[in-house]
Structures are given as C-alpha cells and as structure tokens.
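Provenance and format

Records in this collection were gathered into a single text stream. Each protein contributes a sequence line and a token line. The two records reproduced below are adjacent in the stream.
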Amino acid sequence: MKKVGILVGREETFPESIIKSINEKGASKVTAEMITVGGIRLDEPKRWDVIIDRISHEVPYYRAMLKRMALEGTYIINNPFWWSADDKFFNFALAAKIGVAIPKTVLLPQQEYIKDITSESLRNLEFPIDWEGIIDHVGFPAFLKPHDGGGWKNVSKIHSLEELWTEYNQSGKLCMTLQEGIEYDQFVRCYCVGKEKVLIMPYDPSKPYLSGMQYVNVENYLTPELHKRVEQDVITICKALGYDLNTVEFAIKDGIPYAIDFMNPAPDAELASVGETNHRWIVDNMTDFILRKLEEGFDTPEYRWSAMLNPPEKQAKVKAPVAKPAAKKASTKKAGK
C-alpha cells in the first residue's frame, strides 16, 4: 500500500478534498492522510511515499523534517531543497534568459541588518545607492516587494522617488526588489500541475487577497494565440524551476504576457477563495498526477549524495564463461601454394 501524506497550515478544504480524492481513486492501492510528526531521529524510517507540503516555508522545523524524509526516498511536492534555495529575483533573471517576458527589475540592498553587521561588514556595498539610475531603468509606476515572499505581503505600488524612499525605509531587514509596474490590459493566474497541465484563470489583483472576488469567470478571455503562449510560458517556467505544483501570474499589456510572480510552491487552493471550478480542477489534477507517478515512478531528484547512498551494483566477481572457439575440422585445408 502506497501512502501519501499532507502537511498543512490553516487551510481546510484543499487538504480534505485531496485526501478524499486520493482515497477514492486509489483503488485500495494508495491511501492519503494528514501527517503527524514529532521528534525526528537520525534513523527515522520511511513513513510516506509522497508528501504534499503546504506550510514548510513558514515553519523551519517542517522544512528540516521534509529534507530528512527526502533522504529516505519520500518524494516531496515541492522539493524542499530547491524551495529553500529559491528566490523571486533569481527566478525573474532565469525566466528572462529562457525567453519569458519579465518586467524590468532591480534587486536592492537591505535597509537594515542584523545586530552584528557593522559598516565594516558592508565595505563592498555601494553607498549611497544610485536611486536616480534605478528609477531611470525601472520607471514609474513600480512595485516594491520582497525578493523572497508571497501572499502580497509587504508589497507597495510606487509612483515617485519620495514614495519609494518612504516604503523602502520601512522595509527593515527584508531584501527588496523594485519592479516595473505593468499597466495591464488583462491579468491571469495559472495553476500548473506536474509541469504539464495548465489552468489559465482570469484574475483581478485589485480585489482583496483571498476574498474569493479575485477569480472571475470570463469565457474566451484570451485569444487562441495568447492562450497558447501563456500556457507554454507556464510550462517552461515550471520545468526550469522543477515545481510539480505552482501558480504563475501574468500582467498582459499590448498582447505581451509579462510573468510577474511564479514562486508559489504552495498556492492557494481553498474553495472559498478560488471557487468551485478552480478548486475541483487542482484537486482532480493533483490526484491524477500523484496516482500516475506512484505507478510509473517519479523522476528522482539529482542529489549529490544519491550515488554515495545507492551505488551501482558491483560487478560480478566471477565473470561469465567465455565461449570456447569452435574446434578445427579434421579436413581443414592448408594454405594454398
């Protein structure tokens, strides 16, 4: 019996729905459950074949626990090692290099530092910052947002240099980015499952976050050509990042989809927030993906220690017998003269 564990935070409907769906479709071969963990030993045995992670970005203990589970061969959705190393600014730079349209973006030094960082610690840092040069490059309006964050937390829309300084001076120890604000004609948020299945959802970011008002139903919202490009960009991004579950947001201006947010390895899937249709889609497609991969086998992440823990089979000490040469015939002819 294969086991799937769900690691969750405050959400309710998605964990309940995915557990029910896997248990119903698992045909007694796969079972899903909420995981329970406490003190994790160095020799902790494998307890789940797959774990869907929805909260470790907020709870360091969970992240460390998942890394330990991965060492036993548990497949984690999403990979805790890459998620730990990932950040949004790197993602923007990577996506731009692989052909995805990205707004102009600048990484900014922190406004504050931890206690033991002094001016001597920052001798490599340009001071003062060339604010005018940054603004000339990015322009207004712009968005000041953390280089590694989510949920629209600590995000400010900026219209002037004075506004930028005010918001930046309140950012504390957060490392921020300043990104060109795309005055969009259309906006979409896209689910992606298994780096192959994509659901494009018309989305209104001006509505309150998690209000249930952001997802709007509009038929034929994108032209076929634009729909195809958005879908391909989503798959390209998720393949590059290695995420099996993600959302990608696009601000579309003059027919160009600008990817503005796509580090969402635990995307919102609550029924009250995303609506029945979108909730059902993500539950069904995640279920199908997990069941299919449990049967076919997951693509094993390439960890540097894997070859050391699982060396190739040693060559047999006794070599296979070598076939003897055929016996010469009695009537073998001598070389002619």
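Adjacent record:
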Amino acid sequence: MADLLMCEPTMLYNILNQEIKHSRLAETNYLYLLDVRSKREYNESHIITAQRMKKKDNDYVIPQSMDLECVKYCIVYDGKTNALDVNFEVREKDSDSEDDEVSYVMGSAVLCARILAEFTRHPVYILDGGYECFSAHYHFFRTQKIFSMPQLDSSQCHHSMAYHIFLSDCRQVQEASLQGTDISTEKKEDVSELDAFEPYPIEVVPGEVYLGTVKQACNPQMHKDLKIKAHVNVGLETTPYFQGDTCRLLQISVTDSPEEDLFSSFRHTSHFMDAHVERRSVILVFSTRGISRSCTVMLAYLMHRNRESLKRSWTPGPLPPPAYLTDDKTRPTGQRD
C-alpha cells in the first residue's frame, strides 16, 4: 500500500506548471488530479485538469482506464480537508439535489486516497485545505471546462481523461441537437485548450518569489494574476515592464555560459530581492528558459534568505548547468552556515 501524504497548494500549483518543450499536463501518466466533491460542486467549478471521482453504492469507483501504477502524481481533493486524521463530517443533503451520494464536508479526500493507495506504488497526495484553499490562492486555475489530452493517439484514447471528454462531448452534442445549435467550433477550441495551455512561473517562495522565462515575463495576464511588481532579469533580453525603473528592475546582463561571472552579482541581487519581499512586492526572477542563469541566482538567494548551504537549498526542479554548481564558492558574500 502506498503512503498517504499532504500536498500543499504551492506543490500542486508547481506540478501544474511544469514544462519541458510543452506543458507536462499533456503527458498521459504525469498527473491524475481527482475531485471527490459532489457533482454539483464539480460542475460549478473545479481545478484545471481535475476529473471527478464517481461513487457506486456510496463507494468510490476507480475507472478501469485509470493506470494508477504508472502515474507520477496522484492528487485527491475535496472541499477543505486539511489533515490525514481529520474528523469526517457528513454534509446535509439539499432538498433539490438529484445526487443520492453521501457527501462529506471534510474527510472524503482521505477516504478516496486510501482506496487509490491500494493500486499504486507512488504516494497518494491529499490537497491541504482542499478546493477552497487552493482556489483562494490561485483563482485563475479554476474552471468549468474538462480539459482534453491533445497529444494522445488513437491507441491511447481509452485513458480516463480522454474517456471523460468523450462522455462530456456526447452529452453536449445531445443537448445541442435538442436545442438546434452547432457546437463544432466551440469543441475545436476546447480540444486544443490543454495543448495551448501556457504554464505560469514556478512559485519558489509562496506569494513572494517566482522563477520563470522571458516569455512569462512578457505575459500581462500572468503579471496580473500573480501580482508581480518587480523583475530580476538574468540575461540580455528585455521585456516591456519596468524599463528605466531601477527600483523595480534589476538587470544582470550575462550570457548563458559557464565562463560568466554570476558570483559578483549575488550580494546585490539578494539585497534587491530582500527589499521587495519586505515591502510585500512580488518578484519574478527569469532568464531565457528559466533553467540555468535565473535558477543559479535563485539558489544563491535561497542560501542567503534561509542561511543554508548549497546542498540544503538545492531541491528538485529546474537545475543550473554543472559548471554553476561548483562547491560553496557560490555562497553569497557574508553567508554563513
């Protein structure tokens, strides 16, 4: 039986925003995000890519198409469960509800996770605080749509998310035929939506510091959603934001080469970021692809902020080139263990 672990909202946010060449959400065995709330709540709004777990005789039913053994992340959420040993609270049934299932205010995610843990070798995560907590922090990741898997081929269309889309499409086609409407254009947009999904910057310090790419640094919607107020640009490219404002833009003009001197900029960068954090001004640190120069500067800042060594600050994620990861010479000036 796999372990049950709590998943912080920041962890799920970062899982949703991983990319290589394309968003990793399009990979069939990357993430199963399961919503165990009522059908009414799910239809009103859910987290992007989430599938609703159904019940039969008040027991959760795992779709045969769901390959739990191979999935990397399996995350379950309900309304607001925030602990593994939560006290189960049964929700009173609405008089006008057509749903006969027993619904829990808290604890249903744990019940479902225990069942899923029997079929997977990886940990099953329960979203800490559930939908209520996640949507409060990341309201822009709420949706009523069911995302498709555009990179699946025909031999893989039995996978659960594609199957879910198929059933949803059938229902909408039936409703549209009764209403005499044409949904072909709408569905073309829906089918391509996940493939066109643009990952947001990675959240390094919740609500304070983000790590991203030049493309993300030029995106006005991401700036608005994350409330970004300052940039640390570790590269030669420019963006439309904060030009000429040295209080909100720190430009470190270096190329992506191991021969470049990033060490001399660590102290100034850390103090610049400290000043904005103290003012509750959200910062985006970025370079061309967000995987070398900006990541190195971010590691230096975390060492400075947490008073930790490189080894303790370096957690799995986008990594700098090996040449940048030489011993503790990369420790910012004045840093002590």
